[in-house]
Amino acid sequence: MKKCFIVLAVLFLLPFALVGCTKKEEKLSSYDITLSYDDESKILSGKEEISYINSSDNLLSELHFHLYPNAFRENAKNKVVSLSNRDKAYPNGESFGSIEIDNVQDENGEVAFSVAGEDENILIVPLATGIYPDESVKISITFKVKLANINHRLGYGDNVINFGNFYPIACVYEDGKGFCESLYHSNGDPFYSDAANYQVSVTFSNSFTLASSGEVISQKEENGNKIVSLKLNKARDFAFCLSKKFVIAEKEVKGTKISYYGYEGDNNLSSCIEISKAAVEYFSNTFGEYPYKTLAIVKTNFVHGGMEYPSLVMISDTCQSQEEEDYVIVHEIAHQWWYAVVGNDEYNHAWQDESLAEYSTLMFFENRGDKTNDYQSLIKNATANYKFFVDIYTNVLGEVDTSMDRPLNKFETEPEYVSLTYTKGTIMYHTLREMVGKRKFEKALKNYYEDYKFKNPAPEELIASFSKSTGHNLEGFFTSWLGGTVVVV
Ligand SMILES: [Zn+2]
Prior knowledge:
Layout: H1 2-13, E1 29-38, E2 43-53, E3 60-66, H2 86-89, E4 98-106, E5 109-110, E6 114-116, E7 122-131, E8 136-146, E9 154-156, E10 160-163, E11 169-170, E12 173-174, E13 178-179, E14 196-205, E15 209-212, E16 215-222, E17 225-235, E18 240-243, E19 246-253, E20 256-263, H3 269-287, E21 294-300, E22 306-309, E23 312-316, H4 322-334, H5 351-368, H6 375-397, H7 414-436, H8 438-452, H9 459-470, H10 475-483
Parallel strand pairs: 1-14, 20-21, 21-23
Antiparallel strand pairs: 1-2, 2-8, 3-7, 3-11, 4-5, 4-8, 6-7, 9-10, 10-18, 12-13, 14-17, 15-18, 16-17, 19-20, 22-23
Helix pairs in contact: 1-10, 3-4, 4-5, 5-6, 5-7, 6-7, 7-8, 8-9
């Protein structure tokens, strides 16, 4: 550590040259999705009309879409949960799901689409005429999603049905790389998408209560069904949940309706909605305004602690204490800033949003003066946990790779992924704040948020942004932490 920090101190003192960069204001694609859920067959039928805008610098002759529900197939290459989480994810035995594409049309009629990718995970839609940069094309996709009985982002559990990553969503096109088509992975959130405008209508039995991304535009009842129309602009995804057990607590923060969905009989609704409101207030004040009109915090059947979507977060109903649930709620809400608004390639650079969401959680508890989730104790625990991970791996394997910036499939185990992406990331940002001071650190977060709203900055852009805001060249700092040369003692 000593050697490392001497190097860091030298790098830290180097003057930083500002690099100018002008970005054009991007128009957003839009998704207009009409859905109908049949609870008996556990099938969600959908029709999605996409107005796709080519925001790349290349002529595109086809479009690629992720088919994430196909990761739940029986023969999928990558399991959606690791072996150690199998029993928790499938309490009623293994179960499978999938997505079937019925039909694809463009403005001229039916299109000969294909389902491809390494694991039937990509829908390829050829375009009759290519689309030039800034031009748009309209595509319509009809599909059916079969749900697995699984406590996951997509699937039905004993209490709640989760609809996350359920529809064909356009792959991000990167100039020089093409469409980004990463496979699903049990580690992390293997997703990457551009911000878009959403209009979604969902029909379901009126015995359910809906918790959803977006604000309700209209709702009606017809033949025992509810039909709810929702809208969400500038969002990189859309998700919803259905349950017969939901009870709702609501609060408002600066025109945003915050709703906590718990289960009938829960006696902690007021503390859950209170901490949710406090988190939105703190992050809005510290990083920048929350941009959406609603935020749903949804207790649900979920194998991990929680999951984030724009204006909706899932919180596992297996949290063991209020302290744990509070922590998960705050972490997932922090993702509204780091993932939902400022996006990134979560498959190849998972640390980018996870480390920030995790450290933001600690900042929240520090600001609150929380005694149970105390900042100094959390840092101490993170350091002890990280060192324990390094010791164990060194003793068992003889060596340990502590690099953070790698694709999800390059982490051998879940503990390795968590130790490097969350725990080491927390220590990294704590160290950075100690170095530059709280004022400059928070200014850096504010500027990063403002400059990259609704975009997908690469790691180099995060580093350049932090360097610019703090007035110090932080390339050496980040490179040594991300690359694994820093030794934490
Ligand atoms: Zn997270």
